Amino acid sequence: MLKHSLPEIKTMLPGPKARSILERRQEAIPGSIKSIYPCVIGRGEGAMVEDVDGNRFLDWVGGVGVLNVGYSHPELIEAVKEQSGKYFHAMMNIITHEGYVALAEKLNQIVPLKSERKKTMFANSGAEGIENAVKTAKSYTGRPNIIVFSGAFHGRTLLTATMTAKKAYAVGMGPFPDGIYRAEFPYFYRNPEGCSEKDVIAYYLEKLNKVFEEASPAKYVAAIVVEPVQGEGGFIPAPLEWVKAVRKICDENGILLIADEVQTGFARSGRMFVSDYWKEAGCPPDILVTAKSIAGGIPLSAVTASEDIFNGVTAGILGGTYGGNALACASALKVFEIIEREGLCERSLEIAKKCRSRFLSWQEEFEELGDVRGIGCMMGIEFVTDKQSRKPATKQVSDIIDHCVQHGLIIESAGAYSNVIRFLCPLVVTDAQLERGLDILYTAIKASRK
């Protein structure tokens, strides 16, 4: 079975069938939708992909965090088949379907928020989820502004591209919406020179307070939006002490705290959500947005907030044709079952322990491996030209990615300078596959130094 197989490259990449399809892609699809990988998927199972020429790849990207339960889980296939035999779609503004209600009930039960009385709405993508969370916060508070952070990625719609820090995702798209202000995100590996560990939280809180002083007074801020682990920004975890302080600032000023868990949710961190750790520490969010792995590959996102917050939203602001599609809801309900029954939160921590141990040993071995960080099975390895200057080693990471894919391992970069290798392997990866992937990556790092 492909699910239990190991990487094996049988042809030059891309193979003849893949090359033909990639040529058709070039003719039919805008070049701005980029892909550097010489692969055309034929089928996928578990953490493995087989291309149309029979080459097998271990996938450590997982659709960028979409496939925590893996490719082609048989129970998801059956759940979607069963639902498709009844109906594909029923718009919730017109006809209620029970799957939407049941999935909302499940999220209301487990999403860790400040309030215990919750409600949930559904959209189709992470960006849509964030847009609806922002609209909810603005409508509830009656305030016009939001605060986001350096390194943030929240989507590619006009609003979320404005919220996103890296403007390579929004070249030529202005004018941008007003009322979005940016503070500096805690990036411990690149703290200001001379800023001690003792003073670092105070430094970043001062940067946040500067936004209130110089951009928007706190009384006009509806929400502060935080990724518990920055994704595109370089897999940088939000320090818990900083989150506690931000939560306090929100409480003192009537500001809502929104957790963007689009990429961090569904067992990736070792808990269902990173916000579970926040709640244990006494600093849960007011609104949580999730997507990606929620439905195992079918487009779906969710916004969960307190009952009071949603009750304070003006009628007509929320909704959408496909939000909470019946097929997606059926798949998502099954995803929850699989995660809980197969113990994928625990498995995430097992994988993370093995990988972190190996990554840290490489950090000692290689001058170019500057930092290893993350929460649970969402880890990043930052490459630099040398540990003293910490200059981003963008070219080296590009070479590592190319070497890996040529040997059957699919990985991806992240960070402002694309010098971070991200780890988003499906949580159903076998031990043998994990070891093979680590071996391929190690060999790639060594080859990139020549």
Automatic annotation (TrEMBL):
Keywords: Aminotransferase, Pyridoxal phosphate, Transferase
Known cofactor(s): pyridoxal 5'-phosphate
GO molecular function: transaminase activity
Annotated signal peptide: none
Keyword GTP-binding among UniProt keywords: no
Gene3D superfamilies found in the cross-reference section: Aspartate Aminotransferase, domain 1, Type I PLP-dependent aspartate aminotransferase-like (Major domain)
Source domain of life: Bacteria
Family: Belongs to the class-III pyridoxal-phosphate-dependent aminotransferase family.
Protein name as annotated: Aspartate aminotransferase family protein
Protein species of origin: Kineothrix sedimenti
